[in-house]
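Q: Start with the shorter request: fold the first protein.
A: Done. Sequence, then structure:
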Amino acid sequence: MMSQTYPSIDSLKLMAGTPIPVESSQLVILQPTLKDIAYMGESRFYSAISYLLVNKNLLQIQEDISDFDIFLYLILTNVEIRELMVEFLYLIVENAQHFHFLEDSIKIDSYEEGQSSIINASNFLSIKEIVKQIFCLEQSKADFNPANEAARKIAEKLQKRKEKLSSQKEKVDSILPNLVSILSTGANSISLKDALDMTIFQLYNIFKRFGMYSEYTIQTQALMQGAENIELVEWTKKI
């Protein structure tokens, strides 16, 4: 179910891989290609996303704090996380030149003279929704509190979460390369280069369509050979 903080992105924009503007903000989110993501590394890419989608409800934190509070706290207090997020933000923020991490926001200087944008509590949820949609993600999040005691609780929970994610690293690393390999091998019209130039949304969409069409082809061949009780897959339906 889609969050009410941001509407579903137009399907054509997702398929075209066009930049997505954040409502009521000068911030524009890019849809990087698999080749762009490969430069960062798939494991680091998904690790960065796990911090961006931080959610206090999943961490079972009761304090009156927001997702953005936690996200900003992690960046301000942990150099490793900050460097990871800077790398990720360069990947998805249009024309980003430099990031300033302030106590209540992240200011982003643009390569366009005199232009800047900001990530703050007002647009953070919209940014998270956009990221989930362009990268075909299910819900996953975490949280923070300026109070030292609450912060320590969060740090402990995040460390456990980080260890769990680390134990799943091998599984995560295989997702995108496997899809690229299958699609470029099975679909005669798509080369490895073509697949690597796709965005994640394009890859997932085309891969799913390819699977439906392949199943349809097998079913029609079976029917032609006399098979019965086969309900043809509607491979042209909206995904």
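Q: Next, the second protein, separately.
A: Sequence, then structure:
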Amino acid sequence: MVKLQQCVFHPASAFGRKSSMPSYARILRAGGAALVFMLVSDTTAAAADAVKITAPWVRATVPGQSVAGAYMELTSNVPTALVAADSPVARKTEPHATTFDGGVMKMRAVERIELPANETVVLKPGGYHLMLVDIRRELKPGDRVPLTLIVQDRNGVRSTLQLDAEVRAVAAGTLSHPK
């Protein structure tokens, strides 16, 4: 049998007021708060563990180029969304989408990229991707680029995933345009 002590935090006692709540109720309330904390902690870990990243790569740049794209495949076993990203090689890293409007390719930042349960979402040239903005150095084939992805589960809990993506040269004309 576990003996509970009565040294439990209660908001009223934090401000120098005595609590009228019986000590056993304070213990249960604290235990409930601890249970909620444990569930949130488990959910955070589960959100990161739910996402599988495969084939990450970053497009090589030329001297003076200020942006680069990062690509990969993301598969989650629960509904999740990619909501942000970061990399030390760029001032800013954003989830982006490429659209074609009247034959003109447009790229824009998006707030989130949905990762439906048990479906692979491909971040690729001409589609969803991560845009590395104001890159700090030339990215040469064979280099490694550290990336941090921030994913959010359907309860709003965010967690991070760390990865290294290989820099690859891509031949001109490999970006496909819709007809």
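Q: Describe the second briefly.
A: The chain is about 20% helix and 45% strand. The domain at 50-168 is CATH 2.60.40.1890 (Immunoglobulin-like).
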